[in-house]
Amino acid sequence: MRRVRFLLAAGAASLLSSAAFAADMPLAPPPYAPPPAADFGGWYLRGDIGMSSQSVKKLDNALYSTLTSLNQRTGFDSAGIYGIGVGYQFNNWLRGDITGEYRGKSNFHGLDIITFDNGGAPGFGSDTYTGSKSEWLVLANGYVDLGTWYCVTPFIGAGVGMSRNTISNFVDQGVGSLPGGGIGPSLAYGDNASKWNFAWALHAGLAYKVTNNLTLEMSYRYVNLGNGVTGDLRTFDGTNNVYNPMQFHDITSQDVRFGMRWDLDSPPVYAPPPLITKG
User: Fold this and answer.
1) How many CA atoms lie within 13 A of 170 on its CB side?
2) Which of these, 16, 31, 78, 95, is most buried using a 10 Å CB contact count?
């Protein structure tokens, strides 16, 4: 009996000792749910501004068929670009958006050096062209993000859509001569005209994630805007014997753009609870 009481007393002492030791240990952190897996899907809004550097492959006119030679030079001044759009981030490497933009008026200047046959007599002349061009451009774009380093993500992309090209204030100032004299200066005007075209674009750039919702972009874009056309060219008194609007074939542009994307569905920033220790 004495032996049993001794064993019970020893067991009780052991339990009390274990409880006292546990009281001196730091408290374990409370359980909490692990952070959710990264969710890259979500809608975003975007805005872009930039500058264009445009060119046209060639001009064409019904009266060119009467020429024996043609040497042509053309060019556009730079102009502003202003765009908005809405898009969706499908995952961490694929996204797409639909954009609409106004491409501001770009001054046009061109020069034709021509020769022609005037009833067996060779003629020489030149035409100086001025005018302006603007567009409304709508594109559906897809992008591939190529990875992220220090919050910077390079990307490439492509887009297709429609461009409404407007040629305005077109003026043709010409001068010609024949070996025996004759054919002096000429002046013709083209009414403002617009034309819808299929358009396509290629993109490349860098994106920088400023905050969880805000991303800034700097990008290069090559865009083919299709063709443009003026109204019928007529003389200063409004007469013209041949319907001959000036055709702008294969208008292209190399654009530099600065953009902003605002993510609408980004998850909140995750922060684990602080570890509680006994001081």
Assistant:
1) 28
2) 95
- The pLDDT-based confidence of 67 (bands split at 50, 70, 90) is confident
Strand partners, 175: 126, 185
Distance CA 74, CA 76 (A): 7
Alpha-carbon gap, residue 172 to 232, rounded angstroms: 12
**Token pair for 187:** 């002046």
Sequence length of the chain is 279
Other CB atoms within a 10 A radius of the CB of residue 99 amount to 21
Strand residue runs (E) in 5-62:
42-60
Residue 116's alpha-carbon distances to 32, 47, 64, in angstroms, are 87, 51, 9
The residues near 231 (Cβ < 8 Å, ≥ 6 apart) are 170, 190, 191, 192, 193, 245
pTM, entire model: 0.77
Six token digits for residue 130? 């001025």
